[in-house]
Amino acid sequence: MNKISIKRRILNVIFYVLSAIALLLLVTPLVSIFSAVLIEGVKALSWDMFTKLPQPPGSKGGGIANAIQGTLILVSLSSAISIPIGFLAGIFMSEYSENGLSSFLKSITEILSGIPSIIAGLFVFSVVVLPMGTFSALAGALALSVLSIPLIARATESALASVPRDIREAALALGIPRWKAIIWIVVRAASGGIIAGIMLSIARVAGETAPLLFTAFGSQYFAKSLLEPVTALPLVIYVYGSSPWEEWVRLAWGASLLLVITVTMISVIVKERYGK
Fold it and tell me: At what angle do helices 137-161 and 65-95 cross, to 10 degrees?
């Protein structure tokens, strides 16, 4: 065995060891977080947690049913607002790229996708909450929409860009109007990537806390209107987790487990169904 071969083997072993260490450093925090949430969160699980309202500070019992309801309201309303807008924006950026407005829209989308979530909350606070004079579920959903629209638009654009140009040309050669070719052929071909982008955007906004502090604000009761304050699982985790009361901290762990399970399930479904 010559010196060059020995040197290559040594470098290969060094690279392998460094890669293993890097992988260990990457996985350790993730495993630690999941383990802590699972262990503490399971202790908090009970029927009352899913069905009852929170009790006053220092009291035993209670649940986070209002936060579960609020999360469903905020995510559903946000999706109803952001999915159509992001989807149509993505189509415009991909299929009408010759239009000068398309380049401007791409730049705006890139800027919006990089802004801190708290800025979105402050923006909606100034243009919605202050004029209305109240925090509300509607304001919270609008803040989450500001975050999810650019994600959906970029995912739609990328999915449509992956469709071969020949498919578009074949459809147009058959005399199909351009808008029909886009909707019925191109979008269908890219539907997997589009749906994956939408689901991942939902997973992201479901765990946002900062924008909700300035918009939805939180409430200890069930929401009866979209124009009144509402709480959500991220808000419960933030408020209860930093409180000095043991019962509230317990509920914060339970809310954390629910949120982690939800986000993980969405990610796994996207990976298994659309990641291949």
Answer: 40
pLDDT tens string 172-201: 888 888 888 999 999 998 988 899 999 989
168 in the same domain as 33: no
Alpha-helical (H) ranges within 45-57 are 47-51
| Residues of the domain holding 183 | 50-274
CB 167 within 8 A of CB 178: no
* pTM, 2 dp: 0.89
Token pair in block for residue 105? 């829209």
Which tokens hold the place of 66? Answer: 């209002």
Question: What are 41's two structure tokens?
Answer: 């969160």
> How many CB atoms sit inside 10 A of residue 36's CB?
12
- Asked if 155 contacts 248 with a C-beta cutoff of 8 angstroms, the reply is no
Domain count for the chain: 2
- Same domain (yes/no): 114, 243: yes
The whole-angstrom separation of Cα 109 and Cα 101 is: 12
The residues, ordered by sequence, that sit 6+ positions from 214 with a Cβ below 8 Å of its Cβ are 118, 121, 122, 124, 125, 129, 143
Angstrom distance (rounded) from CA 135 to CA 226: 10
pLDDT digits (tens, 9 = 90+) for 200-254: 899 989 989 999 999 999 999 999 999 999 999 999 999 998 888 888 999 999 9
CA distance 89 to 104: 12
> Contact 230/199 with Cβ under 8 angstroms?
no
